[in-house]
Amino acid sequence: MTNFLSLRRLLTIIRKEAVQMRRDRITFAMMLGVPLMQLLLFGFAINNDPKGLPAALVAPAQDRYSRALVSALELTGYYRFTHPQVTAAEGERLIATGQVSFVVTVPSDFGRKVMRGEHPQILIEADATDPAVASGAIGTLGTVAAQALLRESGTEAEAEASAAQKLDVVVHRRYNPEGITQYNIVPGLLGVILQMTMVMMTAMALTREIERGTMENLLSMPVTPIEVMLGKVLPFFVVGAVQVMVVLTAAKTIFGVPFVGSLWLLMLGVLVFVMALVVLGYVFSTLARTQMQAMQLTFFYFLPSILLSGFMFPFRGMPTWAQWIGETLPLTHFLRLIRGVMLKGATLADIAQPLLTLTGFAVFFSLLALSRFRQTLD
Amino acid sequence: MTSPAIAVTELTKRFGSRTVVDRVSITVQPGEIVGFLGPNGSGKTTTIRMMCGLLTPDAGSGRVLGHDILRNQSAIKREVGYMTQRFSFYEDLTIAENLSFVAGVYGLPADAVSETLEDLGLTSRRAQLAGSLSGGWKQRLALAACIMHRPKLLMLDEPTAGVDPKARREFWDEIHARAATGLTVLVSTHYMDEAERCHRINYISYGKLISQGTVAEVIAAAGLVTVILRGGRTAEAQERLTGQPGVDQVAHWGSDLHVIGRDGPALRRAATAVAIATGARVIEAETSLEDVFIQLMGASTDNMP
Ligand SMILES: Nc1ncnc2c1ncn2[C@@H]1O[C@H](COP(=O)(O)OP(=O)(O)O)[C@@H](O)[C@H]1O
Ligand SMILES: [Mg+2]
């Protein structure tokens, strides 16, 4: 065993890497700064409720109730009725072409139902392809509409007041089968942040030694490929742990993302994901000859993994070929895992599939890296 | 145990279509200090790397400390101390951290580091970053680090390049002291005075080993005759001598002119004639190692590709 993996040598390499990591101020700052920056950038995008979004109104009756609703909605600032009087078909076309973000439909029997104190309904169709756009506007909807009705009814009739309480706002989020809300972004962001730092840093692992000329010395000593690999990737688990804490704390305190699942299950998922990431980065560093090349390889990988993993666009909404590519990316499986655990309270059995897939990635990348590692300078 | 420390035959290494090391055979006996000489780019580093398991030869075979250089590279790495041409310890680690790294990798006891620091006289500067050391100190640190695990064989690649004369002297004293205790040393250099401090030398040029033996043997094998022209109009004498039959090299040494060639009688005839014409005296002299190497270099450029 000592020929392939000696604990003493492994710890020696880990210690050396940790010291170097700590001394490299800029890189170290980046490892903690990047997640914070990304969180705030994306978080800002989430918090920044876009106002005055174009809306269309489908209200065949055009009675005082629907007028009251429209003005109340406009008062929230979210809605701007650019098309105040359209047919259902026109509304459909407007939202499909993206000319409006919302179509508000007030059925013709709305006024009658209000007066009778029955269950009045309005339908709001939201273009939820960009969840950040739709969420704020939708969130305020129910109360606004109900208050508008109350005000309108004034002292006239009890029935109308109770109708306001019974008001049923039906919301259809369109074009977004997974029903992404703002909560979906922060957990996803954890995956993206981890991926960015873990892969990029480990991609430098060997190329840095080569460029600084220290590789020759390292290789002339009795270190084995597996010791070098583990020694160089293991310190990043600590970095990853710090990033996870930062993101989860921010998710809870700043963005109020609910955490319904098990923390241990989440940690298990993160551990396996980070394992896959650091060895993937290490594979890049065995392929590249310079740090520049390692960087390029990393970015070549980032692009599809951000676009096709389900982070940016809903996975099931993508064309089949894109889904196939998506399946080959660790981030895709991690997103399923973390969204499952954080938002849906998934159990171990629920996330077994992504967990196993990520483990498979980690093993595959490790073998690839070890087969690529050159023990000589040839 | 009289088997050689190094015994390699016909080592060959190509980079692309260029043959950088061409059928080089070297034998080094235990306890010897062997010099490896040659101009820049002649293949010294490449040869050393093949012998310490860092490069795989394209052809040839051999043993280092009894281990096959093709099959048992890891055993060689454990037992050989290799000092790279360029300082290749971690500049962003302190002196002590670099040494502990080496100690950890070779599985040395914990006090090895403090002992080495003590030996080096660096205990007070243990927390200094290696990158901030001067050339001479870097070289001492590198040497200390590669003998920490008490190797039986040291391979030093131009260890004294860019080091001041006093530090060089101390370095060689250290090497000789170690060799006296049985350490075998192969050292590459292009300083002539250092070559003369070696028990034996190997001279390589454009990848080919063209001379080996003791300094005296190498000089004798070259078969050169040297005469000195002293006094007179030296500049004119040099001009007249250059290109004369029998004259291969004409070089200024202070106010003297060294005239060197393989054909003794022809050389002496030409030198005497010019000496008379320029008012100089002719003195018989010993051929120096440097003269030999310049001669060898001139000869081997002819069979360059
Ligand atoms: N990895 C390499 N790839 C291509 N050419 C190389 C490589 N290493 C060395 N060389 C070439 O081989 C020749 C010999 O180099 P080297 O062994 O370093 O010579 P020396 O140590 O005697 O100065 C040089 O011309 C150098 O450019
Ligand atoms: Mg060299």
UniProtKB/TrEMBL annotation, chain A:
<dbReference type="GO" id="GO:0005886">
    <property type="term" value="C:plasma membrane"/>
</dbReference>
<feature type="transmembrane region" description="Helical">
    <location>
        <begin position="297"/>
        <end position="315"/>
    </location>
</feature>
<dbReference type="Pfam" id="PF12698">
    <property type="entry name" value="ABC2_membrane_3"/>
</dbReference>
<keyword id="KW-0812">Transmembrane</keyword>
<dbReference type="InterPro" id="IPR047817">
    <property type="entry name" value="ABC2_TM_bact-type"/>
</dbReference>
<feature type="transmembrane region" description="Helical">
    <location>
        <begin position="185"/>
        <end position="207"/>
    </location>
</feature>
<comment type="similarity">
    <text>Belongs to the ABC-2 integral membrane protein family.</text>
</comment>
<protein>
    <submittedName>
        <fullName>ABC-2 type transport system permease protein</fullName>
    </submittedName>
</protein>
<feature type="transmembrane region" description="Helical">
    <location>
        <begin position="263"/>
        <end position="285"/>
    </location>
</feature>
<feature type="domain" description="ABC transmembrane type-2">
    <location>
        <begin position="147"/>
        <end position="376"/>
    </location>
</feature>
<dbReference type="InterPro" id="IPR051449">
    <property type="entry name" value="ABC-2_transporter_component"/>
</dbReference>
<keyword id="KW-1003">Cell membrane</keyword>
<feature type="transmembrane region" description="Helical">
    <location>
        <begin position="228"/>
        <end position="251"/>
    </location>
</feature>
<dbReference type="InterPro" id="IPR013525">
    <property type="entry name" value="ABC2_TM"/>
</dbReference>
<keyword id="KW-0472">Membrane</keyword>
<feature type="transmembrane region" description="Helical">
    <location>
        <begin position="351"/>
        <end position="370"/>
    </location>
</feature>
<dbReference type="GO" id="GO:0140359">
    <property type="term" value="F:ABC-type transporter activity"/>
</dbReference>
<keyword id="KW-1133">Transmembrane helix</keyword>
<keyword id="KW-0813">Transport</keyword>
<feature type="transmembrane region" description="Helical">
    <location>
        <begin position="26"/>
        <end position="46"/>
    </location>
</feature>
Automatic annotation (TrEMBL), chain B:
<dbReference type="Pfam" id="PF00005">
    <property type="entry name" value="ABC_tran"/>
</dbReference>
<keyword id="KW-0547">Nucleotide-binding</keyword>
<dbReference type="InterPro" id="IPR003439">
    <property type="entry name" value="ABC_transporter-like_ATP-bd"/>
</dbReference>
<keyword id="KW-0067">ATP-binding</keyword>
<dbReference type="InterPro" id="IPR027417">
    <property type="entry name" value="P-loop_NTPase"/>
</dbReference>
<dbReference type="InterPro" id="IPR003593">
    <property type="entry name" value="AAA+_ATPase"/>
</dbReference>
<feature type="domain" description="ABC transporter">
    <location>
        <begin position="6"/>
        <end position="231"/>
    </location>
</feature>
<dbReference type="GO" id="GO:0005524">
    <property type="term" value="F:ATP binding"/>
</dbReference>
<dbReference type="InterPro" id="IPR017871">
    <property type="entry name" value="ABC_transporter-like_CS"/>
</dbReference>
<protein>
    <submittedName>
        <fullName>ABC-2 type transport system ATP-binding protein</fullName>
    </submittedName>
</protein>
<dbReference type="GO" id="GO:0016887">
    <property type="term" value="F:ATP hydrolysis activity"/>
</dbReference>
